[in-house]
Structures are given as structure tokens and as C-alpha cells.
Amino acid sequence: MIKIAISGAAGRIGRTIFKSLIGSTEFEAVFGVDVNGADDLPYPVYKSFAASPLDADVVIDFSSPAALDDILAYAAEKKAKLVLATTGYTPEQEKRVEYAANTVPVFRASNMSLGVNLLGSLAKEAAKFLGEDYDIEIVETHHNHKLDSPSGTALTLANEINSVRDNSLEYTYGRHEAKHRREKNELGIHAVRGGTVVGKHEVMFLGTGEVITLAHESENKEVFVRGALRAAKFLMNKESGLYDMTSIIAQNYAVTSVRTEADVALVTLPRIDFDEFLKLLDVIKRNDINLDMISHHFNPDDTAAVSFTLSGDDLTKAEGFIPADTLCKTVRGAAKITAEGAGMEHRSGVAADVLTALRGAGAEVFAITTSEKQISCCIDARSLPAAEAAVKHYYGIK
Questions:
Q1: What pTM was computed for the model?
Q2: pLDDT for 323-335, tens place per residue?
Q3: Cβ-based neighbour number of residue 309 at 10 Å
Q4: Catalytic residue among 3, 47, 78, 146
């Protein structure tokens, strides 16, 4: 049983956490902390961690930045793990969190929703794909009790987008004082407060004649509670370190799908002049032949060693375009297996795990290509069913 201390116990999310733990066989709320106290909760609630005599395995904090020093002191004394979901920390407080992570594990996230973190990944991809021709604006909407503005999630989204723009974008918070046209390098961030909105974030890409909007809305607070408890469980085997939602994505979503393709051919040209290879690619393109898994490296004599896969139907046509004096090795009737996952770019060793699973299934691997989010292997066709089953079993994919 994981013992939880809830910081911000009298708040709306703090109360939701406690309710969600009633009857749990995995977590137990041992005490809470709230600067205002709470006499209506059926478990001890103290006004500070310094006043609590009780031990907890993990502190889950949904309070305010003012509580940070009290929380860090408790964690240092009790060796408690920390899940910090509070936003609005100053740069100095962020440094104290990083320092604390040297001795206790700290999970830090501006938003505990998996969906919001997916929104960040999609926004990064859109920013890369659309380029500088599209203006980017972020609009966040929250309930009328929220203290910080803009939200920590909005700033995280902005930072994610800015990271693929070489951090060249300058943040503009509202435009009530602006007396000039929008600059090309602006990233607008706008806050709306009102009613009981749990949380809504929109990322708008505004181009000439079209607008693309990516959005996420939290319908209830349980989504944050589930994320915080998932983070608490994630920390249980950690001794120290600073973690965030990408750590969970890496652990649980490194590989989320496995695709296979039969009747694949692998063509290898171990020694070809690079200009000749470019000519070959041009001819193949003009004849509408689709190549996949292209790999290349230079030999010591500056010739190129290249290989690629293509369908069995296209093999005969492609071979007809390869210069007669070029050494060519071909594996016919092979297969292709691709492991893919959003968390792959955040987790090391995925290639080793996939290749180990393939070897365990008796697959012969002829070629490998990788990218941030996928690994493709050309293998012998006979082993394809066992290879697919082995990789899926390793990653728990149905």
C-alpha cells in the first residue's frame, strides 16, 4: 500500500484525490496539509508539513507555490517522493526543485493529463510541418478561482513549440498595450477566466486563408487525479531524479503499435558511386516505384554502400534500372516489421529490446532503420508471425 500525503487537501482537487482513494487497495491517504485547515475531512489535515508527525511514501501537491519550501523540507527529512502539480513557480523555486531531485525522486508536471501532453507533441509536429508561414497563438481557459495566469500548461505548450523553432519565438501575453502590427516571431498567449471550466487549451496555427486548431479540454478533475496517482506509482522504484510526463510516456508508450508487411525485397548495392545512386533514385522515382528503409554509408574509397526495401511486385522493374556493372545483392520474399510509439523518443534501449524480441522469436534480421518514433526491420518471412507475437507480447499490445 502506497501511503499518500495530499498537499492542498481542502482544495477541489485535493478533495477529489481523497475521494478517489476511498476503498483503494493500492493507495492510502494518511494525512493532508492545507494552510486553511479542514475540519470536514475524515482524516488528519495539518496546516503545514512541519506540523505533521506522520510519514508518507509520496506527497502529491496541488496547492500553491508558497507551500514549496515546507514540502521540500518534509521530503528531505522523511525521504518522501514528490509529485508536484502546482504551477506558477519562480525561477528560483524551480532551481530548488531541481536541487531536491538530487536526493529524492521528484515528478514535476504543469498538467497531469496524458491528453494535454499528447497535445504538446502534436503542436510540436504541426509547428515543424507548417513552418514560419503560420502565426501561432495559444488560448487557455480556466475557472474563476485559478490564481496564476497564463497557466503553466500554456507556458509548457509554448516552450514545446519554441523548441522546434530554435527558441526564436518571443511570447506576447495579450495585446491590450500593443500599438503595432503583429511581429512574425511572436507567439501569443492569452488567458480566459470564468465559471467552472476545469481547463481548456487551444493552439491555433493561423495561415493565409486557413486556421488549424489543436485543442484539449478537461471535463473533470479526475483526469488530473489519475495522472498524479500514476506518477506516484511511477516513483516508487526511484531513489532520486527529476521526472515529468514524458517519463511515463516513455515507460508505458514506448511502443504502442506493431505493423507488418509481407512480400518485401531487400536490395543492397555494396559499392556504387554516389552520383550513380542519385541517378538510380531519380529513375526509380519517375517510374513510380516506392522505396522504403533506405540506408547509406560511404566506403573507404568514397563509393557508397546503400540498401533499400520495396515490394516484390516492384522488384523486377527496379532491377532493370540498376547499372549492369553494379554489384547487387537481393533478398527476395522477405518481410517487414515496424514497432512504433510516441514514447520511443524519450526512452533509451528500445532498439535493443525490439531486436532481442526478434532474436528470441528466431527471426533473421537483414536490415534495420530507425527514427524518433519507430523501428523497422527487414526479416525472413518465415519468422514474421512469431516475430510479431513476440514484440507485441513484450510491450503488452493486444
A1: 0.69
A2: 877 788 999 999 9
A3: 26
A4: 146
What amino acid occupies position 381? A
Cα(256)–Cα(289) distance, integer angstroms: 29
Please say whether the beta carbons of 27 and 2 come within 8 A: yes
Q: Are strands 374-380 and 135-142 parallel, antiparallel or unpaired?
A: unpaired
* pLDDT tens digits, 345-390: 878 899 999 999 999 999 999 999 998 889 999 999 999 999 999 9
State yes or no: is 179 an active-site residue.
no
CA distances (Å), origin 127, targets 64, 133, 135, 161, 292 = 32, 10, 10, 6, 26
Going by C-alpha positions, the residue among 52, 53, 60, 76 that lies closest to residue 28 is 60
Asked if 383 and 357 count as a contact pair (C-beta separation under 8 A), the reply is: no
Candidates 124, 142, 216, 373; catalytic one: 142
Cβ atoms of residues 312 and 333 within 8 Å: yes
Q: Which three cell numbers stand for residue 318?
A: 527496379
Q: Is 143 a catalytic residue?
A: no
Q: Where are the alpha helices (DSSP H) in the chain?
A: 12-21, 68-78, 91-100, 114-130, 152-163, 222-235, 245-252, 274-286, 312-319, 350-360, 384-395
